[in-house]
Amino acid sequence: MREKYNEELKELNASLVEMGKLCKEAILKVVDALADEKPGDLNDIREVSDSIVKKQEEIENLCYRLILTEQPVASDLRNISSASKAIVDMQRIGVNALDIAEIVPYVADSPLKTQVPILMMADAASYMVSKSVEAFVDKNTELADSVIKYDDTIDDLYDEVKTSVIEAIRNNKKKEAASGIDILMIAKYFERMGDHAESIAHLVRYSLNQ
Questions:
Q1: pLDDT digits (tens, 9 = 90+) for 28-60
Q2: Residue 79, exposed/middle/buried by CB under 10 A (0-12, 13-18, 19+)?
């Protein structure tokens, strides 16, 4: 019985890794959309977002089964509870990616797109997502702490984008100002991804009761 339980815990970790990879894939597809504005990008990202939701449901069901049928000890219960919270953050990352994809067509011709660190924000968000999931699965508190500190990087990049947009509006560049609001929204969604990754990283110590 215990052997089956341990196998299910391993399945839980493997599913979390897979969901994290889907989140990273969604971010990478958003980067491609920002660079190329291909007509099929939105559909591709929507498919990945849907896959993230399905994976969330699978993990939720596994968590419920583990709690209801296996009566986990306190340490395992914290881990399972933390996993159920982490997948909510990952699902929201998928939603954020789709939100960005829907805005991309409106900034296709904006010169501001290449003048602000949007792609740097995407890289930062991708890094934080992958490393936060890795830290959670491996129970690596040092890595989790580094992800939490790295959130300052994505916040600083967001401030750079905001400053550039405000400057465009002050200079009465109507085209830049109009698209600048959309670019600022994209930046905000990347910043939220970072916040969700930070939340996952905080769950590492909670799962270990630290």
A1: 999 888 887 665 578 889 999 999 999 999 999
A2: buried
